[in-house]
Amino acid sequence: MPTKGLTERLADGESLVVAEGYLYEFERRGYLKAGAFVPEVVLEHPEQLRLLSEEFVHAGSDTVVAYTYYGHREKLRAIGREDDLEKLQRTALQIAREVADKTGTLMAGDICNTTVYDKDDPETHRDVTAMFKEQVEWAMEYNVDYIIGETFNDFGEALLALEAIKTYGKGVPAVITFAPSSAYSTFDGYLYGDACRKLEEAGAAVVGVNCNRGPKSMLPIVRDIIKSCKGPVACLPNPYRTTDEHPTMHSLKDADTGKMAFPDDLPAWLCSRTQIRAFANEAKEMGVRYIGLCCGNASYYTRIVAEVYGRTPPASKYSSDMSQHFVYGDEKFAKKYFSAGLKAKLATNE
Ligand SMILES: [Zn+2]
Q: What's domain 6-319's architecture?
């Protein structure tokens, strides 16, 4: 078990690097269907979940997030697998527990937007709370260090998540984040800074944003949240090259066809590693202390974020070192025969 929990680490001024993005990574690898985006991989290929969880820790994640994202009752009902709900939840929690124990990392439970919430329909609020309750109670059986409530569009639903964690979570800390679709406010009209401050005042240990946006269109929102809040702020964007003109991953278009890139053609919009390094540096300078990447993340990006945040994860053993390249390397490694002529050929196509 790790010696220091989330709250102690943050109170001591430390940061947390957290790898998310299981959903897209499994879709990319052929174990999850885009569209419904239900984590059936947990039931059908649990060995793959274990491997990816270990890989994220190897790359520098301080937390193993139980992959229950979009594995809630409503999503399973939608694909006719509601009977598998508890098995999916428990399998994901068990794997996260085992990987966290083996690697000495923290373990987080995970609840998220239910897709059921309607701010004007109180009956949905009861349904949402019931869904959160069952998930939080299952998570507690696996001794989670904290619980994430993520990708909320509405402040109202985020607050229900926090309340459920407080009520059924036996005092474990809550990390609550919005998926910013608008640049300014939640779907139910709260400025992100205000919404995060209210959650902080209501007892969230960490507040902030994750998903929907790439670093460039996410960081201005984070800057406002930091100004509004007293405590630690979370920032976990998608690693996509969103811009002012195309601020969310859903607004990116394929360069050749003009069609919406989400979800199949998003890989064409992935950030370079240099861009991810610049993002991590900027976030660090701004004072973001709960840092990571969401959908689109891969372990090579997490390694960069971890290194910028001062870690040397096991994967750093294999971080790029071009001084050892036979064409571009330094005197010791480059072969004169190739570095003289081949460099120009590779650059010019002549
Ligand atoms: Zn995401």
A: Alpha-Beta Barrel (3.20)
